[in-house]
Here is the input.
Amino acid sequence: MHLPEFDNRFTRELPGDPVTGTQRRQVHNACYSLVDPSKVSAPSLISYSSEVADLFDWQDSDCESQKFLNAMSGNELLEGMQSYSMCYGGHQFGNWAGQLGDGRAINLGEALNSKGEHWVLQLKGAGETPYSRTADGLAVLRSSVREYLCSEAMYHLGVPTTRALSLVTTGEQVMRDMLYDGRPEYEPGAIVCRVAPSFIRFGNFQIFASRKEYAELKQLTDFTIRHHFPELNDEHTPASKSSYSAFFQRVCELTATMIVDWMRVGFVHGVMNTDNMSILGLTIDYGPYGWLDNYDPEWTPNTTDAGQKRYRYSQQPNIALWNLYQLANALYPLIEDAKPLEEALAHFQSQYQQQSQAMMAAKLGLSKFQDSDQTLFSDLESVLTAVETDMTIFYRALASEQLSYESLKSAWYEPESHNDEFKQSVKVWLERYSKRLEQEPRPAAERCNAMNLVNPKYIFRNYLAQQAIDKATAGDHSMINELLELYRRPYEEQAEFGHYAEKRPDWAKSKVGCSMLSCSS
Ligand code: AMP
Ligand code: MG
Here is the structure.
């Protein structure tokens, strides 16, 4: 097996916990604790992503080797790897929760590939760490399939995200109370190897600020800028207040872009706690996330959040802003001036608005947003919410040169229930939309092609995830690999996979895993 060079900057340049072992503890003045993955009894490779393997210059023969399986199951560290868990805190559902940390994530180090890029490998579900609190550090097949496939689907949809290299089962049985209803069951244990340039979160900065460990806060911030935002050090004096302000502004911009992409494809993260916000603006920590089937801005897949619906689809931009406020508070001790932070937060709002308008315009095939389009968008929202409408199918159906109520039929869940008033409202909206399209300089066919590049044909529908999981639990992994293949080209028609573009079947409407998920993973 080809062994990449490891250049472990995070552990080499940042302060670590002097204590080793998995004893649960509060870890002060440190960015990480060294910890080894637990050994597992009967690891088995279920799937790997060849595109992610390519980042490490690994061929199929590498990924199919025993050494790869040993490494991705936590049974062996490759030469040069150094395993550790990160210390971070976070606001969970709006409340400061103190130290959280990688409770079941173990980083293996930073591989330096032939292109000179650093990629961190991280096992999720590889056993206890000092941050596991009362839990076991493990992950089950159900949640691992969801993380593995969704990471890769998001990547190919063009949404910034952490990646997934491999999915293995461990041979261990793991006890989970899936719905927190007092009925725990054994489930197959699994491990996903995640990959990103960095897994640093808002919470890594927050934990130092909350403990007034300002020297470490500065070290972590300087490290992040040096390695992940080096352009800022070209424009600003390194380690200056202006470089910290510029850094925060970049995080605001990256976060805005990520949320716009979530809204574009109908993704609901489900647990936007500050410990689940990547400093690089990547979608991170795939837990009880979901995808809108019928367009419902008030929907959240997370039953743990069913009461408040804090993290529902329509709230995601506001929550991102709230989370950025918390990051601003954490960085304040380095800047000691609220003004640039407030300006960056205002910048987030204007950036979000601008990008979101451009995104909506693109979804409708308008080459440029005009102020008057705002009412076209809001009236469309009324049409989409008046009856159950499949968001994904609707936008694909809209990319047509012949639009009518009939041409959109495939997007509706119960067309037989539509009254004349609704049909009339669709007609009125389509007439306005057609009028607006007359101002478009592009030929219709070109516009439709452009629409199909921002409106996916295939999303990782909740019921498809559940079907893949049910099959995998029964020992059949074929659907995982089929979906992995499908999501490589989510904007293409791929006629052979047409059945994966269908709207949610009735049986999935209230089934656990399809519309209801919890944080128990
Ligand atoms: P999450 O809501 O999944 O982002 O997790 C919140 C915190 O709980 C993080 O510190 C996780 O590492 C930790 N955590 C979640 N599940 C487990 C588990 N099974 N074992 C140990 N820690 C966990
Ligand atoms: Mg998390």
Q: What stands out?
A: The chain has three domains: 5-202, 206-362, 368-439.
